[in-house]
Amino acid sequence: MGYLWGVFRGRELCNGREPVALIDLGTNGEIVVASGGRLVCASTAAGPAFEGARIAQGMRAANGAICEVRAESGALVCRTIGGGVARGLCGSGLVDAIAAGLNLGWIDATGRMVIGTTMQLAPSVSLTQADVRELQLAKGAIAAGLGLLAARLGLSLADIRRVYLAGAFGNSIGRASARRIGLLDYPRELIEPAGNAALHGAKRALFDDAKSWEAVCKCVEHVPLNEDPQFQDAYAEAMGFPS
After folding, report:
1. Is domain 3-48+133-238 in CATH 3.10.20.880, yes or no?
2. Is a pLDDT exceeding 90 seen at residue 216?
3. End-to-end Cα, the chain, rounded Å
4. Among residues 238, 241, 98, 112, which one has the least CA distance to residue 177?
C-alpha cells in the first residue's frame, strides 16, 4: 500500500512542522497529510482510469501506449512508449490529453466535449466523452479526499508545502497537466516523485525496530471518508475542471 511510504517517512513527518501530503495515485487512491506532528490518512476509490482501465482505448503503460500529449499550434502532438504506432492510451496520456483539450477549448469546465463526442489523438486512437467522465470521477475522488484531510488538520490546500507522489503512475504523470485538470493544484516545484513507495516502506517495516513503528502509529489517524458527511459534496464539486 501507498501508506507504507507514509510510515517509511513517518519519523520525519511526525517531527516535522511543514505541512506535506503523500499520495499514491491508483484505483485505490491513498492519501496522507502531515502537519505539526500529526498524520491523517485515508483511502478513496478513484477507479481504474489512472491505469488506463475503463477507457475506450485504454491500455497499460507498454509499447504503443500514448503516454504524453501536448497542444501545439492548435493541434495535438502525441508521444508513444517505444516510439512506434499508437495502439492505445495509458494513464499519463489520458491526463495529458484532457489537459490539452481544456487548453485548446475542446473540452469545457464541466467536462463536456464541445467539438463532438470524440477527440482524435492519433490515426487509430481517440478520446471519448465517456473517457473524460471516467477521469473526472478519478480526479474528483483524490482532490476531495486531499481537501478533507487537510481540513481535518485545520489546513487549506494552499497550506501544503510539498506533495509526494508514489507509485508508477505518480512518477510518470505530467505535473503541469495534473494541475490543469485540478487534480493537484500546486506548482511543479512543490510536487516530488516518491518512487516505489510500497516496496521501500515494506523494507523499512521488516528491518526497523518495533519501537520506532509504535511511535509512528501513535501519531497516525485513519479517516474513513465514506463516513464523512462532507465527502459526497466535496467529491461532486471536485469533478469539474478549472476554467
Report:
1. no
2. no
3. 34
4. 98
Residue 108 has pLDDT above 50, yes or no: yes
Map 205-226 to HEC letters.
Answer: HHHCCHHHHHHHHHCEEECCHH
107 strand-pairing partners: 113
Asked whether residue 2 carries a pLDDT value surpassing 50, the answer given is no
Q: How many CB atoms lie within 10 A of CB 92?
A: 25
C-alpha cell read off for 153 = 488538520
Least trusted range by pLDDT, from 17-21, 108-112, 195-199: 195-199
List 66's β-bridge partners, or say none.
Answer: 80, 89
Contact 70, 92 (CB under 8 A): no
The answer to whether the CB of 166 falls within 8 A of the CB of 194 is: yes
pLDDT tens digits along 49-81? 998 889 999 999 999 999 999 999 999 999 999
Run of H or E residues at 231: helix 231-238
CA–CA dist 121, 107 (Å, integer): 14
Alpha-carbon distance 152 to 51, whole Å?
Answer: 29
Q: What is the tally of helices (H) and strands (E) in the chain?
A: 9, 11
Listed by start position, the domains of the chain span: 3-48+133-238, 49-128
Rounded to the nearest integer, the mean pLDDT of the chain is: 88
191-193 and 162-166 strand pairing: parallel
Averaged pLDDT, 133-162 = 95
Q: Which residue has the cell 494552499?
A: 158
Q: Report pLDDT for 47.
A: 85
